[in-house]
Structures are given as structure tokens and as C-alpha cells.
Amino acid sequence: MKNKYLSEVIYQIFALVIIVIVVHAVYVAVIRPNADIIAQQQAMMQQADSSYEPEQSLYVILKDFEQETCIILFFWAIFIIGIKAARTMKERALLDRELLQVSAGTSILPEDARQYARPVQALPEKEQGFLLPRALQTALHRFGTTRSVQDVSATVRGVCDSESDRLESELAIVRYIAWAIPSIGFIGTVRGIGMALGKAQQAVDGDIMGVTMNLGVAFNSTLVALVTSIMLMFLLHQLSLIQDRLVLDSENYCDEHLIRYLQVPERGAARGGQRVLSDESVPEPV
């Protein structure tokens, strides 16, 4: 289990490094050169015609460092969400399989718990770590040990609750990214407004180009941060939804395919065609 978490952390860090390299390369090769060309053209046309209104360009909106950081974090969060969604869908595939192979009308006795656990134990090692096999194996082991259906039901519920808490805690990094992206956009807003105030004297002298460009930095960073944050929160809620459904469906699977078939024989039940009397039912000698 510890190795699995360590490998996930390594994958996430490796993915972050790759995303930083790719996004920065796109910015250096495509976005910033085109944004500079468009800004120069708009400045020349505005000097030639004071009534000229420059059109918004995607390159100009995305060109600053705050927007680049937001996009890097956005793609990193999508990578993490994609990994967890793929694992969740693999776990859901087990819900369509008959892992216990219990036919209708069959009763599972405590003595049979080990026998019915063998098909689950025969699963590949990777699948045995999924929620449903773990819940089934834990339930069968508890039934064979305690001979109590109530304990089995409580055990399944406990396994599913702990899995739900684990899945929720693993999304902490994505929730932090969803919080950090608007904060980075706000940093860009403050930086842009600060630089615009530094150009106030030029605006008083009649040159408002510097003020407008710096205000564009402020508003564009906020725009990109809010848009990416909205999209990220939507994907995050969708992931939480399919994970919650996995936990609930796994618990229902255990109820329908295992717990409903469990039966504890009463004391004095027939064994091998002979009635076994309990201690209280043995007649005293006359």
C-alpha cells in the first residue's frame, strides 16, 4: 500500500514537470511572440487613429505569467483527476461480475465462508486491492469468525465508510489547486493595477497606452483564473460523484450478493441427518 502511494506521488510530480515544460514551450514559441506582434500592431493603429478600438486576442489574454501558471496547474489537476477516474471505472467494472457465484436459494453458513472467499482471493493482486474484493473478503472472514450477520453488515459499512474517507482525502491536492488558481489570478490583478498606477503620470500627460496595457494584465489574469477554476471545479465534482456512487454500489453489491444469503444455524440444527442437541436440551437422568 505504501509503495502504491509513493508511486502515485512520483507520477504526479513527473506529470507536473512534463506539463511545465510543454506549456512553457508553447508560451515561448507561440503565445508570447504572437501577443507581442498583435500588441505592436494595435499600438501603431491606435497612434494613427485615436478612435481605434483594439479587438481582444486570445494570445494577448494568455500571455502573462499568472495565466501560464493557472494553465499549468489546471492541466496538472486534470491529470490527477484522470488517473483517479480511470481507477474508479476499473473498480466499477467488478460490479458487473459474479465474484461469489452464489445461486438463488443458497444459504452461506459460517463454515462455508472460506470456500466462498476463494474466487475473490483468486483475483489478480491489483484487483484484490479494489474496494469490492476487500469488502467481500473482510465480510466473509468476519462471518466465519463471529458467526454474526449483524457484524458482517457493520463490517461492510465500515469498510465502505473508510474507503469514502480515503477517496475524499486523496482529492485534497486537487481542491488546493482549485483554490490556488483564483488566488494566482488575484495576484495578477494586483500586479497589473500596481503597474497601471505607476503609469499614472504618463496618463496625465496624455499617453494612456501604458495604463491600458497594465489594466489589461489585471483583468486578463482574473478572467483566465476564473474560467479555469470553473472548469476544474466541474470536473472535480464529477469525479466525486462517480466515487460516491462506487462506494454506495459496492455496499449494495455486498448486501444483495452476500449478506442476504448468510445464515447462522440454530443450536440443535440437523447435521449429517442427525439432530444435535444443545446443552440445555439434554434430558437429565432419572
Summarize the structure.
With 286 residues, the protein is mostly helical. The chain has one domain.
What does this molecule look like?
It is rod-shaped and about 100 Å long. The longest helix has 49 residues. It has a two-stranded antiparallel sheet. The C terminus is likely disordered. The protein is an all-alpha fold and 286 residues long. The protein contains ten helices and two strands, in the order ααααααααααββ. 74% of the residues lie in helices and 1% in strands. The relative contact order is 0.12.
SSE diagram, text form:
Blueprint: H1 2-48, H2 58-62, H3 65-93, H4 113-121, H5 125-128, H6 131-146, H7 149-170, H8 172-198, H9 200-204, H10 209-257, E1 270-271, E2 274-275
Antiparallel strand pairs: 1-2
Helix pairs in contact: 1-3, 3-8, 3-10, 4-6, 6-7, 6-10, 7-10, 8-10
Order of helices and strands: HHHHHHHHHHEE
Oligomeric state of shown chains = single chain
Major sheet attributes: 2 strands, antiparallel
What's the shape?
rod-shaped
N-C termini distance: 64 Å
Number of strands: 2
Total helical segments: 10
| Radius of gyration (Å) | 31 Å
Domains counted in the coordinates: how many? 1
Helix content: over 70%
Mean pLDDT over all positions:
84
Low-confidence stretches: 269-286
Approximately how much beta-strand content do the residues carry?
under 5%
Which structural category fits the helices and strands? mainly alpha
- For the biggest β-sheet, the strand order reads 1-2
